[in-house]
Amino acid sequence: MGYEFISYEREPNSIGILTINRPHVLNALNWDTLGELREFLEDVLPKEELKALIITGAGDKAFVAGADIAQMNEMKERDFQDYVDYAHRVYELIENERCPSIAAINGYALGGGCELALTCDIRIASEKARLGFPEVKLGIFPGWGGTQRITRILGLGKTKELVFTGEMITAEEALRIGLVERVVPHDELMNEARKLAGAIAKRGPIAVRLSKTAINAGSEMDLQKALLLEKTLVSLCFDSRDRVEGMKAFLEKREPMFTGE
Length: 261
Ligand code: COA
Description:
Layout: E1 6-11, E2 15-20, H1 31-48, E3 52-57, E4 62-64, H2 69-73, H3 77-95, E5 101-105, E6 108-110, H4 112-119, E7 122-126, E8 130-132, H5 146-154, H6 156-165, E9 169-170, H7 171-177, E10 182-184, H8 189-201, H9 205-218, H10 223-238, H11 241-251
Parallel strand pairs: 2-3, 3-5, 4-6, 5-7, 6-8, 7-10
Antiparallel strand pairs: 1-2, 8-9
Bound molecules: coenzyme A.
């Protein structure tokens, strides 16, 4: 895997760590980085059969400071539309990835960087992290899913406050409003992310995967349809060998040995 702008490592327990790697520009996402991400997500990740994927940024300062402003500045309108389309495609791949994803936010998560974190299932932030949507300062607004994904998490008022002002918030404030799930000391971020990934990796993989589908797809449906989806998916789970193993292990007072079947 000869990537220039991302790196990937597989760790024990089927946990993968994907790092955006352009620290000299605070990991800003240019075309080539998005291209490498797409290739990784479409061609490599499905074969990895991970139980959890952690996404983080290289260096000590930034998760991802957004789309690459220097590159955007050179774009004509048509190029910009293609860039936005491409970013949407990449972000949907992460959101719909079978295994759970965790954003380990190690610094600035701004604009497209915050939008990237929002495609992940769970966000853990270093206490040094700063999050926000500064796009209005550049004469645009968050267009890589930001106005939609953030609204679904924070509601209309908080989203508008963040988007209209472009102001950054601290990790603590992000925790308070529900933009991240945990804040941890900077030096412990990756260990905490690994611990969380490890806790998920021990559980029944089919149950985790189908619960992700139930939660994500169900949140876009009316309650009756969402409940129907939930019933269908949990019944599918019940048919798995992992369910037999999970219940048997409980009754035998031992740890389950899940196989993903
Ligand atoms: N696109 C392209 N380059 C970026 C970038 C981005 N989104 N964010 C930072 N960089 C580059 C800077 O231009 C600088 O490059 P240089 O060393 O060649 O001058 C380098 O990364 C370091 O950033 P700098 O601004 O010097 O660091 P700082 O600590 O003073 O400020 C930020 C950090 C995050 C506050 C500031 O970089 C910033 O506001 N970035 C833009 C964030 C943004 O608007 N994102 C949304 C884009 S749609």
